[in-house]
Design a protein that fits this description.
Layout (H helix, E strand, L loop, with lengths): L1 H18 L17 E5 L13 E11 L4 E8 L4 E4 L2 E4 L1 E3 L15 E4 L7 E9 L15 E6 L1
Antiparallel strand pairs: 1-2, 2-8, 3-7, 3-9, 4-5, 6-8
């Protein structure tokens, strides 16, 4: 009886094994890393100043672009480099350097950023300057909005 059970089990295993078949195939996996940039800004607050003297201030921009990409960072003012409070205006300038020699704008001058990876930003300092404007009226609400653009 034991011999018959073992023979049956062995025959059953052989039949199952004899009928098993496999098929294999492959597929490709691919990806494309797209150029991308992220911008983090900080405000430029000139604070209170003497309009007969003028003042300077700075702000920082952090721009992170995909590794291997590059771009140009430009600035554009909502009011063409003029802070506004109702009908009152206060002109200012933004520069790439502390000596205020090179205007940083959206048409002629930008800063180049070379992507080192989205987790490794490049920091830029924006140097702001208000020239003396003795006719400026007292106000705590002069404001403008600057748009930062990275073209990559």
């Amino acid at each position: 009886m034991k011999k018959l059970i073992l023979t049956s089990l062995f025959a059953s295993a052989m039949i199952t094994t004899a009928h098993a078949a496999t098929e294999t195939s492959t597929f490709e996996v691919s990806a494309e890393v797209a150029a991308s940039c992220q911008i983090t800004t900080n405000p430029l607050a000139f604070g209170a100043f003497d309009p007969s003297v003028g003042t300077s201030g700075t702000a920082t921009l952090d721009v992170a672009c995909t590794s291997g990409s590059s771009g140009v960072v430009t600035l554009a003012s909502a009011n063409t480099w003029t802070m506004i409070d109702g009908a009152e205006t206060l002109a200012y300038g933004l520069f790439t350097d502390a000596g205020h020699a090179t205007v940083w704008d959206g048409t002629t001058v930008g800063q180049t950023v070379t992507g080192a990876g989205l987790s490794t930003p490049t920091s830029f300092t924006v140097h702001g300057n208000i020239e003396p404007q003795p006719a400026a009226k007292v106000s705590a609400a002069y404001a403008d909005t600057v748009t930062v653009t990275v073209t990559y």
